[in-house]
């Protein structure tokens, strides 16, 4: 946030809960510090809380917006992660003036979201089926996360480290030495048709990458990790 302030940015964007790409969440202290900076420098915060519902063992900390008493935090989220990517419906929590301005801009862009999609989401929410759906989704994703972690523990421990995400879609991997991630990426995509996101595209270190357990089945997860481990081990020698 210091960098945003020194660069005279207009707003500070953050996804503090099950962050993309690391899968990690900010502590309460960090959230309080961000609010303090925001008040001191009158810096608006855009809090993207899109992964909040995808928790595994316990609900996450309250949003940064819950600490806001000046109206500096614009809290946004979406159903695109918890229901389906095609459901382009989200929501925001902000002052009435900001909501009216953003709604007007949205109408100018695409005349608003599909009425059918809105009706589907409304029915899911009012019937209680959304809560049941998200509960099942958490169970599925936690199982796939645990499966990916078991393979990492078995095959990557000598060459990399990682943190265990408590929700979301991602695991952030850091290799134990210098590695040519661009070469690793090219080899895997060209020879094996395996895609991962290099950490440097997010501003991460050159020896990092992001893995996702959200969309692939276990067979593909295992195959991809075995190939990544094989090529990475060669690069690290």
Q: What attributes does this structure have?
A:
237 residues, alpha/beta, Aspartate Aminotransferase, domain 2, Aspartate Aminotransferase, domain 1, 2 domains, four-stranded mixed beta sheet, 44% helix, pyridoxal phosphate binding, PyrdxlP-dep_Trfase_small, PyrdxlP-dep_Trfase, transferase, pyridoxal phosphate
What would you say about this model in short?
Helices cover 44% and strands 14% of the residues.
Structural domain count: 2
Helical amount among residues, as a percent range?
40-55%
Overall strand count: 8
CATH level 3 topology of the largest domain: Aspartate Aminotransferase, domain 2
Shape: globular
The low-confidence runs, each spanning 5 or more residues with pLDDT under 50, are none
Largest sheet: 4 strands, mixed
Order of strands in the sheet with the most strands? 1-2-3-4
- Integer average pLDDT: 93
- What is the CATH class of the largest domain? Alpha Beta
Structural class: alpha/beta
Work out the helix count. Answer: 7
Describe this structure in words.
GO terms for molecular function: pyridoxal phosphate binding; transaminase activity. It holds the Pfam family Aminotran_1_2. This is Aminotransferase class I/classII large domain-containing protein. It is a single chain. It is globular and about 60 Å long. The chain has helices at residues 2-6, 28-41, 96-110, 115-127, 129-155, 181-192, 218-236, and strands spanning 12-14, 45-48, 73-78, 90-93, 160-162, 170-175, 197-198, 208-212. The chain has 237 residues and is α/β, with parallel strands linked by helices. Helix 5 runs parallel beside helix 7 (218-236) and helix 6 crosses helix 7. It folds into two domains: 12-127, Type I PLP-dependent aspartate aminotransferase-like (Major domain) (Aspartate Aminotransferase, domain 2, 3-Layer(aba) Sandwich); 131-236, Alpha-Beta Complex (Aspartate Aminotransferase, domain 1). The two termini are 38 Å apart. Helix content is 44%, strand content 14%. Strand 1, helix 2 (28-41) and strand 2 form a beta-alpha-beta unit. The chain contains seven helices and eight strands, in the order αβαβββαααββαββα.
């Amino acid at each position: 946030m210091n960098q945003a302030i020194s660069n005279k940015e207009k707003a500070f964007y953050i996804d503090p809960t099950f962050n993309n790409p690391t899968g990690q969440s900010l502590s309460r202290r960090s959230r309080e510090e961000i609010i303090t900076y925001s008040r001191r420098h009158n810096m608006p915060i855009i809090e993207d809380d899109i992964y909040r519902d995808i928790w595994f063992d316990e609900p996450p900390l309250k949003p940064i917006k819950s600490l806001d008493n000046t109206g500096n935090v614009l809290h946004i989220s979406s159903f695109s992660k918890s229901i389906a990517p095609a459901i382009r419906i989200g929501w925001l929590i902000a002052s009435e003036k900001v909501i009216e301005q953003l709604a007007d801009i949205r109408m100018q862009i695409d005349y608003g979201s599909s009425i059918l999609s809105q009706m589907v989401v409304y029915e899911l929410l009012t019937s209680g089926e959304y809560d049941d759906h998200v509960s099942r989704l958490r169970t599925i994703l936690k199982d796939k996360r645990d499966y990916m972690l078991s393979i990492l523990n078995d095959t990557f421990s000598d060459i990399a480290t990682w943190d265990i995400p408590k929700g979301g879609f991602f695991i952030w991997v850091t290799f134990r030495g210098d590695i040519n991630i661009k070469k690793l990426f090219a080899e895997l995509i060209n020879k094996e048709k395996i895609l991962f996101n290099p950490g440097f595209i997010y501003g991460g270190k050159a020896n990092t990458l992001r893995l996702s357990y959200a969309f692939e089945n276990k067979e593909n997860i295992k195959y991809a990790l075995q190939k990544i481990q094989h090529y990475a081990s060669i690069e690290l020698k």
